[in-house]
């Protein structure tokens, strides 16, 4: 029994926590009855084989217009206050931001962690390793998708964001919160 694949070879998709992947093959492997995607993460070396009917989250990459709209909306995306000193609770709260697979939730997480890091520095403390881990992962996923959507390198995404927000600045927020 074969399942029709909604994403053709060459399509860029977001696959679970792997981030942006290119579909490099679609087919039924020998000895299998299901159709599988062969995926190549844009920022990795592994190859992923995923059933077309997988329960792992799959969606198309943002379009350029959606990416630009997201960037323009960044000043209005609010950080959440995370005041618990309990590492497990903070970790669970941060992890929940990845579960939606929504780029705006990644922006919110990055802003939340920037807010928490700034509060720690104001108190004479160093930003936490937990926050650094989640911020880096959120930036990898967000910048990877924006890179694919905008057709620019992942390394230039923060500069693109700053430039776009500076261009459209109407006194409504800070670009640095997303970089």
UniProtKB/TrEMBL annotation:
<dbReference type="InterPro" id="IPR042215">
    <property type="entry name" value="CarD-like_C"/>
</dbReference>
<dbReference type="Pfam" id="PF02559">
    <property type="entry name" value="CarD_TRCF_RID"/>
</dbReference>
<protein>
    <submittedName>
        <fullName>CarD family transcriptional regulator</fullName>
    </submittedName>
</protein>
<feature type="domain" description="CarD-like/TRCF RNAP-interacting">
    <location>
        <begin position="9"/>
        <end position="54"/>
    </location>
</feature>
<dbReference type="InterPro" id="IPR003711">
    <property type="entry name" value="CarD-like/TRCF_RID"/>
</dbReference>
